[in-house]
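Many introductory courses stop at the sequence. We go one step further.
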Amino acid sequence: MPAPAYALIATDLDGTLLRGDDTVSDRTRDALAAAVAAGARHIVVTGRPAPRVKPILDELGGSGLAVCAQGAQLYDGVRDRLLWSLTLDRELAEQAIGKIEAEIGQVYAAVDQDGVEGLTLIEPGYLMPHPTLPAVRVQGRAALWERPISKVLLRHPSLSDDELAAVARAAVGPLATVTMSGPGTVELQPRGVTKATGLSLAAERLGAGAADTIAFGDMPNDVPMFGWAGRGVAVANAHPELKAVADEVTSSNEEDGVAEVVERLLTHRALGASSS
């Protein structure tokens, strides 16, 4: 009997698995539960830091394993601990912001602190793209660097996300990796780290390989994950850059696009435990 096509389902959260109100639909939850019952594994792969992911893992059930912070953290939600993490050098982060500001003037910054109890700190002028996520406002930029961080989030008062990301990539060079993970979310993370980095580590722990993995996403930060996985599925609301490299485009996050594909794969018995 041939091996099932996909043993591992990797899903981004915001704009992909989650609806605009930060909830998972009953249809999507049921589809993922059915896939797990059939022998597949589901893993969350997100830009959110570990502390902002645990409530969603609890709601979804499953393995409790998640790739967080754009691939810089591998999180065990069952034991509430980081299995692997890589921090962004704070001195390099400051230098990178300085180079960006030399090109386009003032930007506003926030950071996600490392660790399972890490806070999201925002400097004056920074507006959270997800107002439902908790953040602590600090008095000035210096306070952002007081503890180890997993990434920096940047906003500009007038440039679009695409424009800011392009300037940041050109200005930052080898100091950090620049990603765009959602509306109002341009980020600096450790050099060379992407969602594919964390997903490959997680897949190895779960006994799956790249060819066994189907990935779902909506933003350019999902491009490396699509490049690693056997199949990449973009939701209808995805950024054009991701759609351009996707193997398939499904319905939007508001229309249960993930569930639509998972249900189809279950019908064709194309989800289950890997034979590798």
